[in-house]
Design a protein that fits this description.
Pathway: Sulfur metabolism; hydrogen sulfide biosynthesis; sulfite from sulfate: step 2/3. The chain is of the alpha/beta class and 200 residues long. It has eight helices and five strands, in the order αβαβααβαβααβα. It has a five-stranded parallel beta sheet with strand order 2-3-1-4-5, with helices on both faces. The structure holds adenosine-5'-diphosphate (ADP).
Amino acid sequence: MKEKHITWHEGSVMKQDREKMKGHKGVVLWFTGLSGSGKSTIAVELENVLHASGVHTYRLDGDNVRHGLNRDLGFSDDDRVENIRRIGEVSRLFVDAGLMTLTAFISPFQEDRDMIRSRFDDGEFIEIFVKASLEACEKRDPKGLYAKVRRGEIQQFTGIDSPYEPPTTAHIVLDTEKVTVEEAVQSIVAYLQKHKYLKG
Ligand code: ADP
């Protein structure tokens, strides 16, 4: 065990103190869904709305993380698990810092999402399922990835030749074939208000 001689060093400024100063809860909003389902679009717009109302936010997005922290990881099964594990741990630090943390990763496997959820206290992890059919996602194809898959340039692509396991325990489900980006954002804000994550 590598961590044998390591202990967590507790400071005297606690998460609750940081939350009090910010006036809202530290929590992760974990967006999951197929590529093109709308995770990034909704997370970006939600962050705009939250920021404008004085909420301290941070957004973690798939490709951005792969540029730096996870640049050593590829797309093998092991690397995908490690990719998500690190993102979960970074999110945990941001939540401890009192930030409303928005993550937009396909995170296709229930087991991985459950593992991350288990690293958070109750109420600190909000799972948001951004739902859209594979047909709709492929039609949108915002990054041209589905076209590349169909040309055989990408393998093991979620939804095509790698599975996506829809969450069974999501706190919020957004069907982006039925609701607009604005409506999706509003329903998340309503959830945060209802469950007292926001001030006032
Ligand atoms: P993901 O992050 O899940 O891979 P993106 O947010 O990058 O997906 O892309 C989603 C695409 O779908 C964007 O081009 C967006 O404009 C479009 N779109 C159409 N309707 C919606 C909707 N209701 N919610 C979110 N995105 C939508």
